[in-house]
Amino acid sequence: MSDTWESATAYVINALEAKGTATRDDFDVAAIVAATRGLAESWDFRAIENATFWRIAACFLRV
What we know:
56% of the residues lie in helices and 0% in strands. With 63 residues, the protein is mainly alpha-helical.
C-alpha cells in the first residue's frame, strides 16, 4: 500500500464493501479517511485495530 490519500481511500472503500452488506454510498468515506489519518498519523491504515476502524466508520454512517 502506498502512503497516499488515494490508497487510503481505496482501503476504506474495500473494507466497507468487503462483506457485501454496505456500499461506499452508505458512509462519508472522505470523513472516515480524514479521521483515520488523524488517528494513525499515516496513510497506512493497516496499523489501526479493526475495532477502532469500525468505530470511526460508524460515526460517519449516512442515515
